[in-house]
Every structure is written in structure tokens, then in C-alpha cells.
Amino acid sequence: MTSITAARLATVLGPWRTRGPAYTALADRIRLVALDGRLAHGTRLPAERDLASALGLSRTTVAGAYARLRDAGVLESRRGSGSFVSLGARPAADAAMEGIPLDFTKAALPAAGPVAACYAAATTLLGPELSRSGYEITGHPALREAVARHFERRGVPTDPEQILVTSGAQHAIALLSRVLVAPGDRALIEQPTYPHAIDALQAVRARPVPVPVDVESGWDLAEAEAALRDAGPALGYVMPDFQNPTGASLREDERERLARAADRHGTVLVADETTMWLDLRRGPRRPLAGFSPAVVTVGGLGKLAWGGLRVGWIRASRSLVTRVAQSRTSLDLGTPVFEQLVAVELLARENELVAERRVRLGAGLAALRGALAEDFPRWMVPDPDGGLAVWLDCSPWSSSELVLGAREEGLALTAGPRFGLHGAFEGRLRLPFTDTPDAIRAAVRALRRAADRHASGPLTEPLVAV
Ligand SMILES: Cc1ncc(COP(=O)(O)O)c(C=O)c1O
Q1: Looking at the predicted structure, is the pLDDT value of residue 377 above 70?
Q2: Fewest CB within 10 angstroms: 166, 337, 376, 422, which?
Q3: Which domains does the chain have, with CATH numbers?
Q4: Ligand 1 pocket test: which of 250, 303, 342 has the largest number of ligand atoms within 8 Å of its C-beta?
């Protein structure tokens, strides 16, 4: 059973007060952090008295908030043992989407045009596979070869034995976290970062060391160097290309500087290249793995082709590939063969897929920027040169306030703090441009209506510094 202390919950909640009654604002914020995964199903909440004292409230206010959450089915109280977060039988992501038509919580695309043809082509290759066992824990040889060629085309010589095929990039991140991190080890992460990477590192009880990444100025490399030197992280998780959520990319000189610093201090850099293909206008850059043999790369076809394919990979030294394969056997015994054959077909059409994604995402970004310019003329909307989303300063509103209001308007979004640690980013909102222009315009209209619910002005509390 997981419990959360009153002090920790106060941090997770961030600046939660709105102009409405305190007990409703508190209940709304607890519900939001449960729905977006910051507070797991089954977590025991602090006793009313403890939370009241941590938040400087009366016990009656907290009791009122808990009662409201019980009525909404988000809290379950068991006599004598406390109050537990309850999302019913549904995972948080499903619970968050119930009855909400516009899902902007995921920065994900539908299948690209050639995907169906690649599935069809793979069926013609299946025959000979069926006379074999199908168990290949490191991956099908044809896909390992195709992924190795993909790295070679980008200037990083790679032997197929350095490739381990996984069931998606998330699987790869989780496997590497298990192998490279012991409980209590430090792990360097970008702040903000991809939320499920935080989840994977928390699952192995890593202690995160955040390093700032900004839409305009990119990585704070001086801080990254200091963190590598002072904290000695076992692992450093970075997204060098079109970072999720900022869209920022590391320049080549910065890649070299970061790889050198990690080598000096014995940190294994894990470069997540899932979003690498989503280039609107930047042009290719040498992969981080090109700057040090110690860099481990994670990739996958979820964004380039389709999330439903569930094929990803790890590129690492042969010995690390072996260690990961050994650790994997307690979880699964390989990635489905058929999907790997589809992935081989898709990689052969990489250029076509990249071009298609560029058109789709370019239209999405233009629609998003156009709609925001109309409905939120005072917002400075970033113009990223790739990726899936804009990461914008949503002041004077708080991100959570907008997200809660948007739910009432039929739009699901993820609040800024889900992308960071310790309640940071209440002043930021991630808006994906992966949907159709019409859906994007409808989402911005819904967001405007949500903002109008709070039209009386900014929050009564200052926003957390970003
Ligand atoms: C940066 C990043 N890494 C990994 C993933 C997960 O990819 P996959 O669907 O291949 O598991 C995502 C998906 O959103 C992502 O944005």
C-alpha cells in the first residue's frame, strides 16, 4: 500500500487555490492529480488533521474536500484505515477520458498512410517464420539488421548485435531503468520531461536530478555538467531531438559537450529518439551516440508510423544488450514476430513516412498557432521546428485551472506539472498539434471557454516559479 505524507501532497498539489470556496478548489485539484497520474490509484491520503496543518487550513475544509471526493467516487474511505484514491477499475488515463470528446492528453498521431500496406506486405513474409519457434529475445534478425542500417545511414556504425528490439520505446526506457539503476541511485532528467520516463525511473526508486530545458534557450548545460559532477547519476535520460514537451533540440556542439561530461563522471546517457523523425524544418543532426560509445539510444516507430504497432529498440554495447536481454526474461520473452516484420517494411519507407508526418504536423502547428493567435492574442506561442506539441506560458491562468475548466468544456489536457517534479510548471501548458486542424480549432475554442470561466483574473496565489 502506498501512502503520501501531508507535506508531499502539498508539494504535488502546487498552488491549488482559486477564487471559489477552498474545499471545492482543494477537491478539484486532488481529483486532477489523480486523473493525470501524479497520485496513483490506491494511494492513502493523509489524515484530515495532518493535511489541514500542512496546508494551513481548518480541518473542516479538508473534511469538506474529502467528502466531495467521496461523492465523486475519487476517494474511498475504509473505517479505521483511512482514505484511498480510487479510480475504480479503470487506469487513470481511461478514467481521465470518460465522457470527454476531445483528447489532447496524448501527443500521438493516427497511423501514417503506408502502415496498412506494410501490414499487408508482412503477411507475405510470415510463412517461413511459422516453421521456427518465434522466440528471439533480442529481436528478429531482419529488424535488428534494418535498425543497424538506420543508425549507419545517420553516421553511427552499428552492428546488428548492438540492437535489442523492444515492444515500444517505453518498454525500452523501463528495461534500461531496471538494468542501469539500483534503488536510491541518482538519475538525471530534463525538466520538463516525458512523464512516463519519470514513471519508469520512479518504479526503480531512482532519485531524480532535474536539469532545466527551455523552449527558447534549450538545455542549461552548465547545470547539467554540475549535476553530473556533484550527483554522479547512474543514468541520464535526454531527448536530443524535438524534446517532449518543449520541442527543443540539442545542437551538435552541445551533444559533444554533454556526452563528454557524462563520460567523465561515469553516467550512462540514454538518448530517447522517439520524436527524432518529426522534423518540420530543422534538418538532420548527428545522433548523440555518435559522440560517445557509452551513449545508449532508445528509438521506436510509435510517432513515425503508429503507436499501435508497439515496436521499439535499444542500441547499446553488445554487453549491455546481453544484460538487458537477461533482465527481460522475467517480463516477456520477445516482441511479436509479425509486428517486427511490419517494422522492417516501415523502415524501408522511412523517407516517405517522414515526409507525410511533416505535412500533417505542419498543418497542425499552423492551425494551433492561428487559433491561439485569435483566441489568446496575449500569449506568446512558441514556433518549434519539430515535435508534437507547443509548451507555452499560460499565465495569467494556472495550468491546472485551465485543465479543470477544459474538462467541463469537453477537452482533456495534461497540466504542466505532470511534466516536471515537485509541482513545477503550473504556469505552463502542453498543447499537442497532432490532431486535425478542425479538432485543434475546436480544442482552442474549448480552452477559451475554460479561460472565460476564470475571466475574473489570475489566481489569488502566485504561480510556482518555473
Ligand atoms: C519521448 C517519448 N518517448 C517514448 C514514447 C513512447 O513510445 P512508444 O509508443 O514507442 O512506447 C513517447 C510517446 O509519447 C515519447 O513521447
Answers
A1: yes
A2: 422
A3: 6-92 (1.10.10.10), 99-111+352-453 (3.90.1150.10), 115-348 (3.40.640.10)
A4: 303
